[in-house]
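Journal club side-thread
Mid-discussion, someone asked how the predicted structure for our own chain would compare to the paper's figures. Pasting it here so we can look after the session.
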Amino acid sequence: MPLTWMRRYGVLAILLLLIPLWAFAQGQIPLPQWPPFPNEPRARPPEHFSDQPRGLLEIINDWEDAVKVTVWSHHRERIGEWIIPAGQPAVFEMEGERIKVRPHYKIKVGDDWGWVDVGQVGEFQNGVWYIRVRDIWRATHGRRPGVPDWKQ
């Protein structure tokens, strides 16, 4: 009996050694980088955004309720969060200074769903990004079938 168990485990050990080698030979598993440096910081992608328009941010709340708007930089750093009263425009400030954004900065309305680029929903005029809350909502929530456009 012990000899049959040893044979089975021996075959299993050989298979465990040969299967990864076979996978490497097929080219489906990339060879690991040796020696691995897991604590090495990743290089940041090069800045390609310096030529894009940067301007002040003005949001127009065209809804009947107050809304919360959150803005992030292109490095996914949270810039701030603001509550905009119904029917009011808001110019965004942090620590007494008006913030400037680029078209790739992210913006969202409310607490759920995703965000959208400022450049996708905003209009850039005279150094200011103008955005309507309804446009942010449509971009992040999509069109709802069967609901008229004026209700979305």
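Post-session note: Residues 52 and 102 are 7 Å apart (CA to CA).
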